[in-house]
Amino acid sequence: xxxxxxxxxxxxxxxxxxxxxxxxxxxxxxDGGYGWIVALAAMLCNLVxxxxxxxxxxxxLHLQKHFQCSDMLILMVGSVPCGVYLxxxxxxxxxxxRYGCRRIIIIGSIGAATCIGLSTLxxxxxxxxxxxxxxxxxxxxxxYLPSVVMVSFYFDSKRAIANGxxxxxxxxxxxxxxxxADYLMGKLGWKVGLLIFAGMMLTCILFGAIMKPxxxxxxxxxQSETQSQEFIDIISDPLTSxxxxxxxxxxxxxxxxxxxxDNATLKTNSxxxxxxxxxxxxxxxxxxxxxRVRTISTSSRASSTxxxxxxxxVLNPEHAARPLYKKDALFTGSRLxxxxxxxxxxxxxxxxxxxxxxxxxxEINKKQTASRAFVDILSTMxxxxxxxxxxxxxxxxxxxxxxxxxxxxxxxxxxxxxxxLKVNQxxxxxxxxxxxxxxxxxxxxxxxxxMIPHFSALxxxxxxxxxxxxxTVIASYAYNFTTCAIYAGLxxxxxxxxxSLLPSIICDCVGLDRYTTAFGILFxxxxxxxxxxxxxxxxxxxxxxQYSLAFAVGGAMIIIGAFFHVALSYFExxxxxxxxxxxxxxxxx
Length: 589
What we know:
By secondary structure, this protein is an all-alpha fold. The chain folds into two domains: about 35-215 and about 390-570, Up-down Bundle (Growth Hormone, Chain: A); about 215-320, no CATH class. It has helices at about 5-20, 35-55, 55-65, 70-85, 90-100, 100-120, 125-155, 160-190, 190-210, 225-235, 240-250, 265-280, 300-305, 315-320, 335-340, 370-380, 390-405, 410-420, 425-450, 455-475, 480-495, 495-500, 500-510, 515-545, 550-565, 580-589; strands at about 25, 215-220. Strands 1-2 form a two-stranded antiparallel ribbon. Helix 2 packs antiparallel against helix 9 and helix 20 (about 455-475) runs antiparallel to helix 21. The radius of gyration is 25 Å and the shape is globular.
């Protein structure tokens, strides 16, 4: 390039950089429009992904007949992918933040379909466990989690409705894929049946392609030192904190969250951030190369009010488009639920701490922002310091027990009916349909029940989880198809809130700032015990030659898990802050 042209290019870049200093970037959830297409695509991803995993209860009969193996081994083939796709949640989240949800879903779809197809070549059950279970579980996770995140990226106030649609996909998969698997494998053989399921998995490529990322919008930053100082003075006055919170919310004044590592600016703005966050204003957990108070003039307030929610911008447009930099990316409810759900415990846990997602970015490490997009989320989701929170520790221990019995009706009920009770195999496969229908109904009903006065999310969750455990114990006395069907319906309904209401309970316990960390750790606990539960039931069946003891023990595990969640009411919500943030806060005080 000639020296003259190079000089002009450098001048243009300098001018562009100066111009960009007056702008920030935001991604505003449309809360509708194309977002409903994304929600529908996510629902279909869940239908295929969860439907395939839940259908293993029917597949088991055909696979066990071919491999001539014990119940423990064949159930491990079905439990390993269910556990692995939870265990890889933190890694998949980091990859989705780095490369985008759409790309990860497409790769996951191709990988999962390939693993299902290759598993038909397995010479023994151990090989199938590795191909279908371990590698297939990784790719199933790459389809499931990013699809949920994309719905959260497109919806804010209507998120609960959108995720209700997505949840329906899991129920529809359980409704249809069990009988479908029995029909295909019964008529065409288990290998052809699995190949057809692999073909259905490839349809998620199309569903993933639909989920295009939101484009950041470029918005001018209106800076007014006088207005900013007045705002700081108002919110710093404890006597006017209540009125200032109301005024801040009304005027949509947002302040970027700062990293615990951004020491230079933290000392200056710590008290300001603390007071603003005490008002309950949630925002994007994104990096910023400088921390600025952003005030919105009268002329711009109208437009900002119409897109209320995430009007906080960042200086780097790439970070605005990264879905996992939103603190509520994994929260499946609406923002209204966040503000209301704290009433179910003792105090408001949403007094946010200074976030540590991700570390602040300066001029030196801008080139590393792409890799940090992965590292930030991965390190956040495997931060075991969250277990210092007594309530979160109880939730994790409770889930260790509850997940030991959670997959029991899904994996073993059909076998229990056919082998122990001599029910016709075709009829028995419809037990999964009954379970799936009432499970979907329970996920919707759980949220509605919590709207009844004095029925908090925690209480509803605990009562129904305990009920599911008792029903599973009683199921060991089932004696025909009708009693099995009654158990499938009641248990499917009762155990549903263990998935649908737990997000609100976790937010009550740790706050929105630490929600991503809490769910990442919960993924790990659930993943390990999901792998152990069904094979343990299979071991009891191999030992006793019946499933009765397996259902009795599995139900007891769910009951124990319910008691650990009941214990949450005896502890005050804690907000665990990053140690560096605590040290900085002490210095400011």
